[in-house]
Design brief:
alpha+beta, four-stranded antiparallel sheet, 5 helices, elongated
């Protein structure tokens, strides 16, 4: 029996009519390839997230600290020509710190709120992030970057990935004395199960994928102020029908 296994990089399957009759295989030979495209682009928009944390035996006093810090954040944004609407302050959370107490033995209250700032002009990034990083009561900084024309860039990457897949298919088909025919299936990611997509039921065609969990990490000052390039990669899986190559006229 055919023992071909899928691989992440590139897989060629040539199934002749009548082969492996016990399996419901397609009645045509095909080639399955993975194309890819890569592009590094400079972001033009970003977002900054952080927490404001205040602790006091009097929750009202802690809330005053939060409101003061929010006012300072908005004042800095106005100095940079940013709109107040670009900052979103989420609800305040209050809790009692079990391990801390005031001098008179009263419980210490901790108040927290999250702040999200959209930065539409990255010329403001360094003065904004740098101006906030040293302020008291601010913690848990995280940054994210994007492109305002990301849809267009993604479309270009998809087109390039498909062109790369066809080029790979043509090279492989030529090596078998065939030519690439029409597209029978395509997906913008690796096929999770080629057998299901093509009607193949044997376990030999099962390919399990695992993805690691990305966890946010603390960033230092240099990292927070930097605006890194966006490294974009677009894979595409395509299944082409294989046809006989035309005979050369004598």
């Amino acid at each position: 029996m055919l023992k071909t296994r899928l691989r992440i990089a590139v897989l060629v399957l040539l199934l002749a009519t009548g082969a492996a009759r016990a399996t419901p295989v397609p009645a045509y030979p095909f080639v399955h390839v993975t194309g890819s495209a890569f592009q590094a682009v400079v972001p033009d928009i970003g977002s900054l997230d952080f927490e404001i944390v205040a602790t006091d035996a009097d929750p009202a006093a802690a809330r005053t600290v939060l409101e003061t810090r929010v006012g300072e954040v908005r004042a800095l944004m106005r100095q940079l020509g940013m709109e107040d609407s670009d900052a979103a302050v989420r609800e305040v959370r209050q809790s009692v710190r079990k391990d801390d107490r005031a001098a008179n033995g009263a419980p210490a209250y901790e108040l927290r709120c999250d702040v999200h700032i959209n930065v539409r002009n990255l010329a403001n990034w360094a003065p904004l992030a740098g101006g906030l990083l040293g302020k008291p009561n601010l913690d848990g900084f995280a940054s994210a970057f994007d492109r305002s024309d990301m849809d267009r860039i993604n479309d270009e990457l998809m087109t390039q990935a498909i062109q790369d897949a066809r080029r790979r298919a043509e090279v492989m088909a030529a090596a078998f004395g065939r030519r690439v025919g029409g597209v029978m299936a395509a997906t913008p990611d690796m096929l999770k199960n080629l057998g299901t997509a093509m009607g193949l039921e044997r376990d030999d065609f099962r390919h399990a994928r695992t993805a690691g969990d990305a966890r946010a990490q603390d960033v230092d000052r240099e990292q927070l102020l930097a605006v890194p390039a966006l490294k974009l990669r677009q894979p595409v899986d395509v299944i082409f029908r294989l046809e006989n190559a035309p005979r050369h006229a004598r």
